[in-house]
Specification:
Blueprint: H1 25-39, E1 51-55, E2 58-67, E3 73-74, E4 77-78, H2 79-92, E5 97-108, H3 113-130, E6 133-142, E7 150-159, E8 176-179, H4 185-194, H5 211-220, E9 226-228, H6 234-246, E10 249-253, H7 261-270, E11 284-287, H8 292-300, E12 309-315, E13 322-325, E14 331-333
Parallel strand pairs: 5-6, 10-13
Antiparallel strand pairs: 1-2, 2-7, 3-4, 5-7, 8-11, 8-12, 9-11, 10-12, 13-14
Helix pairs in contact: 2-3, 5-8
Length: about 350
């Protein structure tokens, strides 16, 4: 028993564990208790997936992310697609138009060059599809046994249009919560490939760029309050982060959350909650009620938002807490996950 490990261990453990990279409570504690004090800041509510900076009179979004997914290639995508779309989507959640990326590769000694070339081709194709350029980069090689084939880091810069101000502090009671489509496909696709699971219906990752969808939403009104792509920790983590950052409560109608039947069946079989499973091509938006119908229509008219749905609302009650109303008429608290149900999903 002494050799057992868990992705969500006791919080007083003195060493880094897998749960620290899961996007849940352990990740937040690592940032707030270790990293922010070292970097000179202690404002967890201001932390988002990209930073907004002013430079030369322009408002820029800047983001960086590292990708260590296993396996490198999975149904619906690869680490190359993730490296582009993950960073592009982080920029888009600030309302920015993604423009340029950097690419850093960490290669393990012994990995086949054909594998590296395949990752590079996927990354280049994803960049072209997202309308961004890879303009700089770096490559390092580590000894055999000190990596996992290929790791990728991408950083990106985008331009934020005038009048766009997306941040949790703008969320107010009465706002409507909208998701752009069905949740859970990415995490289940990764797990099925990793564990060699086979379902009657194939499940593919939803990995995709969201910049065009965000532009369509902003064309309806720049007065969106906040956007978030629910990656690590899934929809539950994204909602909890926004509730905490805004000091408001969120009520979700559980049956309104779109979940593909194959994903729902796989989660039921494996004891997973789809609201906590990662996505790589979906967003959640907090929209003023007066604009909700128009924004929803614009989302459904876009290929990336055809299955968009209103799933909840913001309330003044239980600030900082997310509550789901179940199909049986009861309620349950949707906590921030401690670690991650499925490690290494991005």
């Amino acid at each position: 028993m002494l050799s057992w490990t868990c992705p969500a261990p006791l919080r007083d453990r003195p060493r880094v564990v897998m749960g620290h990279g899961g996007g849940g409570a352990l990740s937040a504690e690592l940032v707030e208790q270790v990293l922010l004090p070292a970097f000179g800041g202690r404002e967890p509510a201001a932390l988002t997936d990209s930073a907004t900076v002013e430079l030369g009179g322009a408002r820029l979004a800047f983001s960086t992310d590292s990708f260590v997914v296993r396996p490198l290639f999975f149904p619906g995508g690869s680490i190359g697609d993730l490296a582009v779309n993950g960073t592009v989507n982080d920029l888009a959640m600030s309302g920015a138009r993604p423009a340029v990326l950097s690419c850093g590769l960490i290669l393990e000694e012994g990995v086949e060059l054909d594998t590296v070339a395949r990752v590079a081709r996927a990354l280049g194709a994803a960049a072209r599809a997202a309308g961004v350029r890879v303009v700089t980069g770096d490559t390092k090689v580590v000894e055999a046994g000190h990596g996992d084939g290929v790791y990728v880091n991408t950083s990106g810069i985008g331009l934020i249009p005038a009048g766009v101000d997306l941040r949790p502090e703008r969320v107010v009671p009465g706002d409507v919560v909208v998701v752009s489509g069905a949740v859970g496909a990415h995490g289940v696709a990764i797990m099925s490939e990793r564990e060699n699971l086979r379902f009657e219906v194939g499940i593919e990752s939803d990995c995709a760029p969201l910049g065009g969808l965000v532009e369509a939403m902003l064309a309806v009104t720049p007065d969106l309050h906040v956007l978030r792509d629910p990656t690590r920790g899934g929809l539950a983590a994204a909602l909890n982060e926004i509730a905490a950052g805004s000091g408001t409560g969120v009520v979700v109608q559980e049956r309104a959350v779109p979940v593909p039947p194959p994903v729902a069946a796989a989660c039921a079989m494996l004891g997973l909650d789809p609201m906590y499973v990662a996505n790589e091509g979906k967003l959640v938006a907090f929209v003023p009620r007066e604009h909700a119908d128009a924004v929803l229509a614009a989302m459904r008219a876009h290929p990336r938002g055809a299955e968009a749905a209103i799933v909840g609302e913001v309330v003044a009650d239980h600030p900082g807490m997310v509550v789901a109303r179940t199909g049986l008429g009861g309620t349950r608290v949707v906590d921030l996950p401690l670690g991650e149900q499925l490690p290494r999903i991005c």
